[in-house]
Amino acid sequence: MNPTPFDRLPAAMRRLLAALAVACAAASFAAMSAAEARPPEQALAVGQALPGAFFQRPEGPGPFPTVIVLGGSEGGDFTARQMAPLLLGQGYAVLGLPYYSPDWGGGSSLPALPEAFHDIPLDRLETARDWLRAQPEAAGSPIGVYGVSKGAEFALAGASRIEGFDAVVAIVPSDVIWEGWGPGTTEGRSSGFSWRGEPLPFVPYVGMRAELAKFGQPGSAPRLRTPHDAGRNAHPDRVEAARIRVEAIDEPVLVAGGDEDGTWASGPMAQRIAEQRAAAGLTTVSVVALEAGHGLSGTGVQPSHGTFRYSDADLAAQAIIWPATLAFLAEHLKGQGDAVYPAGAVVVRAGRAAASP
User: Fold this and answer.
1) b/e code 66-83 from CB counts within 10 Å (16+ = b)
2) Which domain holds residue 261?
3) Which has more confidence, 68 or 30?
4) Is residue 354 domain-resident?
5) pLDDT at residue 42 in the model
6) Helix residue ranges, H only, 243-334
7) What domain count does the chain have?
8) What is the pLDDT of residues 16-28, one digit of tens each?
């Protein structure tokens, strides 16, 4: 078995990549106050059916509409635990659904989960849906899915196969399944996701090893989008097989991406998703920010602590995406009627023409 580009990296470089992955996720929540950023208290561990998952509900009588949160390539439950206070404050219960937990150099934080991003079972989302349906705090209430980056890829691929969700939010998403990576994978032959025990068709990377090596080279400017774009261009025959059938998602979908995303082409991919769903006459809200990058799941507020700062373009995009997300969830999980979306969000409702406020 050929080691993957990641396996070949020295431990020090893997730790650097770990820091970058977590920083990517942390960037989305850097504007939160210290109080908001605390891990959820009184969170319920779901159990053996969903190892690593947690459930938290707002105060007051239920049942509550619930949002399932899927993080990105940082792994573990970091993104879900940072998102939980924001969603709880809006009256939603939260099911944090980590699905892999890599050893970035200090051991896996959730050892019951896969260490490699390889054949991650989309079925886990189905199990989460069924678990929620059995909980008094959520039974009979709408269920939404919120995914960021690789979690957005998971959310869309899962919802295209699994019924029972009422809204899907995909921030900086992919429109295809990508190659997997990590311990035990084979370069160019391992899929990132599986369904019913079978690996899904995927688009391989081209040049990922060379791009990762730049992280250890002073003065270099690594750009993970490059091996993604190169893989897509080199394998047009595999793109269609790996395409996520977003037109199979009957439920409303919100997608948001940035044209200047240096991790992968989230802007063009979000645009393709929106166009495919519009052609099928499906309710879709889309935001494609021309100058924005990958950190688009923040709240539009520049952090006042730490050293990280958003670009002006990312902040401007967040100032559209976050209010649009709240309006979208309120419309489809709380039944508050047609939402008013901020300027810059393109709204297509089933049976109606596209509109941009």
Assistant:
1) bbbbbbbbbbbbbbbbbb
2) 5-348
3) 68
4) no
5) 56
6) 266-279, 312-333
7) 1
8) 444 444 444 444 4
The answer, yes or no, to whether residue 102 has pLDDT greater than 90, is no
Nearest to 98 by CA among 89, 84, 257: 84
Task: Confirm whether 164 is domain-assigned.
Answer: yes
Q: What is the CATH number of the domain that holds 154?
A: 3.40.50.1820
Structural domain includes residue 356: no
Question: Cβ atoms within 10 A of the Cβ of 1, count?
Answer: 10
* CA 287/CA 317 separation, integer angstroms: 8
Query: Could you tell me where the beta strands, DSSP code E, fall in 4-65?
Result: 44-45, 54-56
Residue 37: beta bridge partners? none
Edge-to-edge strands of the sheet including 198-199? 120-121, 193-195, 198-199
* Residue indicated by tokens 């995009």: 317
What tokens does 230 get? 């190169």
Please report whether residue 39 resides in a domain: yes
- Residues paired with 70 in a beta bridge: 147
Q: Residue 355: what pLDDT?
A: 59
- Name the residue with tokens 């099928």: 280
Residue 13 has pLDDT above 60, yes or no: no
Average of per-residue pLDDT across 60-74: 94
Question: What's residue 341's pLDDT?
Answer: 96
Distance from C-alpha of 8 to C-alpha of 165, rounded to nearest angstrom:
40
> What's the pLDDT score for residue 356?
57
> Exposed e or buried b for every residue in 264-279, given b needs 16+ CB within 10 A?
bbbbbbbbbbbebbbe
Please give the Cα distance from 294 to 212 (Å, whole number).
18
* Residue 150: closest CA among 113, 99, 81: 99
User: 34, exposed or middle or buried, with CB in 10 Å at 0-12, 13-18, 19+?
Assistant: exposed
CA distance 56 to 314: 29
What counts of helices (H) and strands (E) characterise the chain?
A: 10, 12
What is the SS3 assignment for 131? Answer: helix
Distance between CA atoms of 206 and 184, rounded to whole angstroms?
19
Cα–Cα dist 119/254, whole Å? 25
Per residue in 237-272, pLDDT tens? 999 999 999 999 999 999 999 999 999 999 999 999
Return phi, psi of residue 257, to 5°: -150, 170
Q: Which class for 303: exposed (0-12), middle (13-18), buried (19 or more C-beta within 10 A)?
A: middle
